[in-house]
Amino acid sequence: MKLIKDKRGQSAFAGIILMAAGLVALVAMFSIAPLIGHSVDTAITIPGDEYADGTLTLSGVSSDAELIDVSTVTFELNLSGEAAGAGHVEVNISDSAILTTVVNLIAAINDNATTSALVTATNTSTTVVLTADTIGAAANSIVTTETMANGAFGAATLTGGVDGSDWNPTDNPNVPTGRSIWTSNAPLLALVVTVSILVMVIGAIMTFGAIGRRGRD
Description:
Number of strands: 8
Shape: rod-shaped
Structural class: alpha+beta
Radius of gyration: 36 Å
Low-confidence stretches: 1-5
Mean pLDDT: 77
Strand order of the largest sheet: 5-6-1-8
Number of domains: 2
Helix content: 40-55%
Distance between the termini: 22 Å
């Protein structure tokens, strides 16, 4: 007995395989596309805008006539009743409490017309933190020095100010990210895959019908 291949069954089976492969590709595309976009976003670090800052740390009580320079202004620490030097901004201090010195110093910095236009001073119990009012690298030139026995700035100027890239998506929300590009294009890609699946299925059905007609003939 001679065995005859069922070409109709083979065509139908091929159509099912093609359709299944297309569906798998569609699911994979929606699953993997965001991951690809995330990989693109994290592959290169795009700098963003940063504020410059600096910290004066006090390790002990201050002494009379010690000096702190912020930009062009000199703040002089004085015990109550003592007068500051010419051109200096007086800051009353305590000879026993670091916190008193810190609190009075930040008040003096924030109240001074010159320094308040450049920085904002905040504090902890033992530190004075200066943060530039203007974002970017230009504030890295603001002077922060001191003449103190028990206090020191971390650097002679503010540091950490950065002029961010125009391509940073955090600073510029209109800049597309890799994730957003993949996500926004996913519907179009899905349409292409869907059409491809339909073409393959229709092709398999037409092949199936053609084989059937030839068989009857």
